[in-house]
Model the fold of this input.
Amino acid sequence: MSGQQQQQLPLTAPPQAPGIAASAGPAPASAAALLLHPPPPPPPTTAAPPPPPPSAGPLPALGLPAGSSAPAAFPHGDPALNEQEKELKRRLKRLYPAVDEQETPLPRSWSPKDKFSYIGLSQNNLRVHYKGHGKTPKDAASVRATHPIPAACGIYYFEVKIVSKGRDGYMGIGLSAQGVNMNRLPGWDKHSYGYHGDDGHSFCSSGTGQPYGPTFTTGDVIGCCVNLINNTCFYTKNGHSLGMENSLGLQTPGEVVDANFGQHPFVFDIEDYMREWRTKIQAQIDRFPIGDREGEWQTMIQKMVSSYLVHHGYCATAEAFARSTDQTVLEELASIKNRQRIQKLVLAGRMGEAIETTQQLYPSLLERNPNLLFALKVRQFIEMVNGTDSEVRCLGGHSPKSQDSYPVSPRSFTSPSMSPSHGMNIHSLATSKASNTHFSGFESSCSNGVISNKAHQSYCHNKHQSTSLNVPELNNINVSRSQQVNSYTSSDVDMETDHYSNGVAETSSNGFLNGSSKHDHEMEECDTEMEVDSSQLRRQLCGGSQAAIERMIHFGRELQAMSEQLRRECGKNTTNKKMLKDAFSLLAYSDPWSSPVGNQLDPIQREPVCSVLNSAILETHNLPKQPPLALAMGQASQCLGLMARSGIGSCAFATVEDYLH
Amino acid sequence: MSVLSEVTASSRHYVDRLFDPDPQKVLQGVIEMKNAVIGNNKQKANLIVLGAVPRLLYLLQQETSSTELRTECAVVLGSLAMGTENNVKSLLDCHIIPALLQGLLSPELKFIEACLRCLRTIFTSPVTPEELLYTDATVIPHLMALLSRSRYTQEYICQIFSHCCKGPDHQTILFNHGAVQNIAHLLTSTSYKVRMQALKCFSVLAFENPQVSMTLVNVLVDGELLPQIFVKMLQRDKPIEMQLTSAKCLTYMCRAGAIRTDDNCIILKTLPSLVRMCSKERLLEERVEGAETLAYLIETDVELQRIASITDHLIAMLADYFKYPSSVSAITDIKRLDHDLKHAHELRQAAFKLYASLGANDEDIRKKIIETENMMDRIVNGLSESSIKVRLSAVRCLHSLSRSVQQLRTSFQDHAVWKPLMKVLQNAPDEVLVVASSTLCNLLLEFSPSKEPILESGAIELLCSLTQSENLALRVNGIWALMNMAFQAEQKIKADILRGLSTEQLFQLLSDSDVNVLMKTLGLLRNLLSTRPHIDQIMSTHGKQIMQAVTLILEGEHNIEVKEQTLCILANIADGTTAKELIMTNDDILQKIKYYMSHSNAKLQLAAMFCISNLIWNEEEGSQERQDKLRDIGIVDILHKLSQSSDPNICDK
Done:
């Protein structure tokens, strides 16, 4: 018998037993695969594909009430489901604020239609299980999400939790374009990319994988992030980024996985990644090279500001600005003042005088634009109901002072301080709403400056600078709309009509149904505030005077007649019809102000009319209908929309609002 | 020549004006001097040579000088300090620091700020001994009080602290004067510079300091805990400098035991952020700092090592650290080449450090590292680089990888790693020696193919000399390596070891105060005393001393492991043919064996049993007599008792 011996290794770590198995060989091709992948990132290299088709197909499966067609295994009752739905909505809004879900819905679950038959879905189409044999490659199966990833996400992310790795553990996660064979392993075919659990390899439109990351198995949470800005993609495991890969592929058999499209907080901190890219994109914008020649850029900016001021008739400010920047104003001062006078009348609700003045100063304008005249008259009718129009005001018992003070009241709630904080609204909606408030706030501050005293010009000027940048949004919307019209219209009449419908009755037929209903809601809020404000004025029909009511009814008849005449001469016009109907509806309520159509009485509604009239006057002078500043902003937002539709992801991190301070 | 004298003449003009009797003219002169020196190093040097500094300091300290003049003097001095290191040395020689510190007592904020700014510039220079900040005990509390004065005092003071806080003594001084409370709220300052300098302060305060770190985790600022504030500063839209420094704070707090290694703020925030710092997109300096900090963070935690190893392809990312200067930069861009060259060493040593940490515990990670392109070649090259830092970290990396049995047998052999390693061991500083000798221990393991060539290249002599080192770690490694070397070695090697070590040194080591040294020495003895011919041979020459040493240790106050090891040596001796007699004739030893047979510790009982069993082995000559003798002293009785013991190991014997 020999003595005992001992050997030791120095310091901390003993050597491990030799013969630790090398990493597993390639996965046997006979295993069936279940692929999970949501739809396409913009194709990485080859020729540009058509933009993703508008999803007329499957709708988000989320609205599914529990128990309808969902498997019985679903553990939550209705309330829990609703709560989850709300959380999902909130999270998606926060992650992808630039996405217009009307146009490009976000994936919310796996698609029960876009899957191979071996795939079973449960738990509200979030849980996937494989029910095939998993014996040969022919048994491979995959499923896609309900919708393609919208480019306006900029960066898109989802996670999958491996509930059970099944018999062989061949799971895959990744991306695939619509139309890629679902009976195949992901990554094997063109436009599909994936990450394999069994060997940690990634597949990129090819049957051979590349070593990429660690393997994964039951209990792991695997995430997939698509960067639509630089067209890369990376995967995460349990919250850890595994590193960039231009494109990826994967495969799996007979297992169960749960998807998270935003239903729950993600394990990986995707928002931090997004923050980095937002900063990058914004730095890119900030550093964008501007004109080479010295001063050119500044001069252009000054011209834009100046033309904007002139357009809206802020003549004192425009003059001061032009003086201090050495510019010439194209339009004569008198002309600007005329426009300003008319605008002030409209905004004060004195429509009768406004129409009269317009006819005096621009004799043929309204004759040539019967629809405009009609719109003005309808507004006049509304102002009569309001008791503010000149024709009823002289009949009522108000002192001029209190009448003048009326337009003051909106200031209390349309001041610029009200305007921010609409960030959570759908993009287009936020724009239109914000514009209204800004606009009136601006308007009031301006008239202040002009009326009161020339000595206050500098003060006024300052004020403009602080607010003016916000103002153009209203116009910007008009611009974008009229541009759309221009693109297919042939007749001037049509175009004008459409224009009216946008300007006067915001809610009609422009596809912003969602937005406008919200808009109405906002208005109601404003109304309540206004009520408080004007309660001292004792709000009564036509200012409370019987004579005024009679005048108003008479005027209404004239208006009816005019409408009929218009129809005979120019053909049917649904916009006009609706406008008139809405106005007349006011009379159906004992208290029109709190009626469902009461928002027409809101002084804010004067602004679209005012803007349309102003544009029409400018056109007669061969001046642009819109100021270049508004045009530029309109183009910028259009451009962002175009980027979203063309799959350029950086649009996610740049909004026009970011640059309006 | 004439140009030079002209310049000097104009400089003299500035200095002369400082002596003007009219204070207004002096002030005017100082202001003009200020404008003349800004950004002009030559002018600065001239003024210093011409003796402007003592005069400026005099004016600065004069109570009768106007505040404006004193302030301008401080500004000019600050400007001079901004120049070369020589300028700073000249200023220090004129005792500028006490003068400026004195100035901080003034009630005038503007003047205080100017003094602080100048102090900041001087203290951030590498030539300034930071001790100068601590010589006067009233300075630190006064600086703490000035922290509330303005954003400039905050910025400068924090910057001074973060540069002058070196080691635990400084940390304790600052901590005891309330640095944590005074600086914490600056992290939410509106000024970026103040936030940044405050953050840097915390990183130096927390480094290897459990007391500070434990305090930091519980500090609230605006209702938020400090770690949460650091995590916010880690966000990816923050400036890189801020991300990196807050990652350092969290790393240091974690290593100091104040934050658990499995805390989400480490696993999901700090670690990924440090990995990102290693990416190609970052500046070279940032990549160095990122890799070093990450290496420190994960050094002792295998779970963090695993996470880091899969994050963002870190192992492959680090391979890029070796590509500087790139072949392209050499031709196309001299500036870039210069920049690359300057950082090349730093990059390489940082990468080696991080590889060492990554591969410290996990075999799969080691394999991944070695499979990285040209990895072994890079290490081998690193071992012979001129920069000590690179050599050290290359050895560390090699050491970490040498813990893999598989790699010892393959890559290490293929690349003849032992050659450069043996070279490193010649005349290296202790810190390199410690790691290199540790690595050598692993390379000398019985199954390592490098063992033979290492022996042939004179390792025994080298290791024997290590055992005489003052440095404990070197003694341990030396004897450890010898122990590994002796394992199942041939007679000649054993004899070489014994000769090389000398008996005196062997017994010196057996009485070493460090238990590790003792254990390894016993291990060496045990390995030497194996196989019967070796046992008899060694015991015939050294028997007396060995028996003496064994007796001493068994009688001494030692822990169980030491005694067990010693009994095992006895058992080996009992296995010898002639060596047996040394035990049988030593009643003292026999009594001791008897004692340990009934010891309460089963391990010791077992070891003692081995001795007995080797002594009474039947097939050997004279076994009967030995059995009789043992029976006489009562050992058989104990054996009977033990055979009924509950412990099956003991029963079997």
